[in-house]
């Protein structure tokens, strides 16, 4: 109820009126049943515009930090993320990564749409980077299609590090679902997982025509951090 209230009464109408988002390929999102929406990740607001422009709810796995803030700001942030259908996950790796995978599988097992950013983090410079293989494992274990999604100009609207969004029209391009059933039962093969993940990233690159670099976005971010003296 809270999700629908935020989408259709509180947040949705205001956001649509100000930024006038557009979408192409909406019909490529399955009308029912579970599916993974694999999106590039340019800005914090990606997780707002994609669910807003689809008829079905989309569940994203968000950093647990967004749900643990203190004070009024922490409460507002927590309510916002819950209201937009996002679930907290620990991205620290190891057992935390396994827990995140299981959380995603629970969403898919309920027949819902799961939004995933295969790059694992926001692009630091607008390029598309190497995908993490967790998305491939989820697709095979849950037996669901992967729908490529490209966010357009959300980084221009709200670049990393800014707090006030610019008035820029943003868009979404949804590609045709990709069926990986030919790899059924092979979720334990790391070469298969890498092949599937690379196929997803190629689909995203072709759909959005972003410049692609075959390294992890997190590695690039580490390079860009100022070195302590």
TrEMBL record:
InterPro entries: Plipid/glycerol_acylTrfase
One Pfam family, short name: Acyltransferase
Signal peptide: none
Boundaries of every Phospholipid/glycerol acyltransferase domain copy: 35-154
Record bears the keyword DNA-binding: no
The entry's keywords: Acyltransferase, Transferase
A molecular function GO annotation: acyltransferase activity
SUPFAM superfamilies cross-referenced by the UniProt entry: Glycerol-3-phosphate (1)-acyltransferase (SSF69593)
Protein name: 1-acyl-sn-glycerol-3-phosphate acyltransferase
Taxonomy of the source species: Bacteria, Bacillati, Actinomycetota, Actinomycetes, Micrococcales
